[in-house]
Amino acid sequence: MAVEAPSEKRTPTGLIIPPHLEGVKVAIVESVGFGLALEALGLFPGDVIYYLEESEHQIKDKLIIEAHYIIAIETFGE
Q1: Other C-beta atoms within 10 Å of 37: how many?
Q2: HEC assignment per residue over 10-78
Q3: In the list 29, 37, 49, 53, which could disulfide-bond 67, CB 3.0-4.6 Å?
Q4: Backbone phi, psi, residue 8, to 5°
Q5: Model-level pTM greater than 0.90?
Q6: Are 73 and 53 in contact (CB under 8 A)?
Q7: In the sheet that 70-74 helps form, which strands lie side by side, from edge to edge?
Q8: Interatomic CA distance for residues 7 and 64, integer angstroms
Q9: Contact 49, 25 (CB under 8 A)
Q10: Residues 8-23 as b or e (16 or more Cβ within 10 Å = b)
């Protein structure tokens, strides 16, 4: 008897997003705020982040994501 493996989504750069993370969204970092958590992440403008959908906060025309909801970062340099 065979069981089908769960399908995985792949980003264009090869990052695998498993089915249990269906609520994951993608954004490009435009600017980075201040704080120890952000310094530890090493985020820079232009990086791509993957975050949980429920963490979105819209303020005017900006999307604010709290650092502890970031699941993965694709860094393309400083």
Answers
A1: 13
A2: ECCCCCEECHHHCCEEEEECCCCCCCHHHHHHCCCCCCEEEEEHHHEEEECCEEEECHHHEEEEECCCC
A3: 37
A4: -120, 145
A5: no
A6: no
A7: 24-28, 48-52, 70-74
A8: 30
A9: no
A10: eeeeeeeeebeeeeee
Beta bridge partners of 28: 48
Q: Residue 1's pLDDT band (boundaries 50, 70, 90)?
A: very low
One-letter identity of residue 53: E
Confidence (pLDDT) at 13: 73
pLDDT confidence band for 8 (50 / 70 / 90): low
Higher pLDDT, 4 or 18: 18
Task: Name the residue among 73, 56, 77, 78 with its Cα closest to residue 15.
Answer: 73
* Spatial contact of 69 and 55, defined as CB atoms under 8 Å apart: yes
